[in-house]
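Expect chain and fold; see below:
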Amino acid sequence: MEFIYLEFDFKIKPLEPWRDILIAELGDTGFESFVETEDGFLGYIQKKDWKGTILEQIELLSRKNITVSFTQKEIEQVNWNEEWEKNFEPIIVDTICSVRAPFHEKPNVQYDIIIEPKMSFGTGHHETTHMMIQHILKNNWEDKKVLDMGCGTAVLAILAEMKGAKAIDAIDIDNWCYENSLENVERNHSKNITVFEGDASLLKEKKYDTIIANINRNILLQDMASYANSLHKNGELYLSGFYIEDLPLITDECNKQGLTYVENIEKNRWVAAKFVN
C-alpha cells in the first residue's frame, strides 16, 4: 500500500541520550518510523496525520540545554514494504535464533522467526530487542503464561511460544504494531498468542508467570505497579528500553513494587534487566 509521508530531518546537540528520548516521545504522537543519522534522525509521519500542534506536545524541544532544529519535506507515494526489504538483513542471536524476512534463506538454527516488520519496532537489530531475545533463550518458558507488553512485531512473544510458553498476551498501543503482530503471529503458525491493541489498563484482573516489557524508561516507570500487580508469586519481569545510567532508577521503582533485581545484559549502553517478585 502506498501513502504520502512527511519527512522531518531532526538535528540534535548534544546527540546522546536525547536522540533516543526524542524518538520515543515522537513515537507517541503519530510518527511511524525513524532512521538515525550522523547528527540526529529522520522521522516519518503520514501527511493525513500531521498537525502543526504535534511538536508543541514535546517537552524536550523547549529545554534550554538542548538544541534541536529540523526541516521537513513531503515524500510522495513511497512503497514502505519495498523500502524495508532493501535494508532488512537477517540476524542470528547466540547462534541458535534467527530473525528474518520471508524472502531470506532459511538458516540452520533451533529457533527460526519470520517477520515482516514494516513500520513496527522489534526486528532484533536494535540492542534492546536483541538482548531481550538473549534473556528468552537462556531462561525457562515451559508451560508459562506470558505477557509481551509493547510487543511491536511480536517477535518476543513468538520466541516465548517456541520456548514452550502455553499462553501469551501480546499488547501494543500502536495500531500499526497491533496489525503487524497479528500478521507475524499467523506467519509463524503461533497457536498460543493473543494480540491486543491498548495499554497497561488492559492488565486489570490478569496474572502472568512472566512479563516482558521493552518500551522506554518513562512508560516503564509509569506502569511498573501494573506489571507488579499482574505477576504471580515468584514471577519474572524482563525490562528493556533504557540506558545503563537509568538502571538504578528502574531498580528503585521495582523495589518499591516488591520486585528484586537479578541480573542485566548491557549492549552499547542499552540494558535489559531481569527482576523477580
